[in-house]
Amino acid sequence: MAPSNPRDWNAPALRARLLKWYEANQRELPWRQNKDPYSIWVSEIMLQQTRVAVVIDRHRVFLERFPTVDALACAAEEDVLALWSGLGYYRRARMLHQAAIYVAENLNGRMPTTSAELRKLPGIGAYTAAAIASIAHDERVAVVDGNVERVLCRLAGWEASSGSGATALRKKIDGLASELVDPRRPGDFNQGMMELGATVCLPRNPQCLVCPIAEHCVTRGEHKAAPRARMVSREIAHALCVQTRRGEREVLLEQRPASVTVMPGMWELPALGNADVPEEHLRMAVRHAIMQVNYFVRIRDVNEDEVTELAGPAAGKRRWVRADELAGLPLTGLARKVLTRAHLLVAASGSKAAAMLL
DNA sequence: CAGGCGTGGAA
DNA sequence: TTTCCAAGCCT
Asked: Is A279 a catalytic residue?
């Protein structure tokens, strides 16, 4: 039975075991190639609520296009959003861009080095500030992300609670994390904890038999998570309206208003008022999940004459976009998916050609 | 403090 | 097929 008093966790042994395991088992990831704070910063923002597998390629492309804080600060927001297209949570990109501008204009292009100073930048919360400071600058501060929270709850035998209990639990978790973090190698310790949560101490199937700190763990795998909201399904239709001018293919797109809360200013295919699409006009059907809504989307081939009568009330501003311009526009994930499938846009993932289009 | 904010792929 | 996410942050 592991002790419940944090002072009895045998932190030195736990640290040694975790670090040894991390050295042997850490994944090779682009943002671990060096300790460039800017590269780590970009990775941490991209990784917020987003899977590592998705971020790997996006991080590489982003750093090729915007290699430094100054390069990012000089960019137009539209170009930053275009590069972010498909990653979701676009506010992250806007705040990253705003923060880069602040650093360039007020800090002589030099990023803050302490977690307290980093925390003041837009888009950088407690987690991200601690992650950048500990990984890039070896600041002795613990990170607590979803992984670390789960690992520590299992380690200590704490159950998830709601309301004010959640706040109290969170304070206990933060306290334990600070107690355990290795003062000599905080960056590696923090990454080790997250790596353990991501690859061993999994939410549903914890691999306790290969866990390096199993003997420090109270529960050996038990962990109740808070229940989530149910998904709902919805049927919608969008128009795929293509024309050829001067030998170039163009597609009709619509820019979402700046005033909407979801994906403001992003470009998408015009929405149709009727979700029922006759078989002969059905170009493709895709599923697209946004938040807790499962959209079953029908894409209808529509000619220029039909588009106005078929479309719902035009929410945004429409324009014809040449196929070779598409990669430079901030497209919604759905628009990107459809245009890629329709061979109007080259798949961005793993493609040098796609990066060169930008 | 609860709710809003995206996505593609695993289970 | 449908659910459930994944290295949070802001208001």
From this structure: no
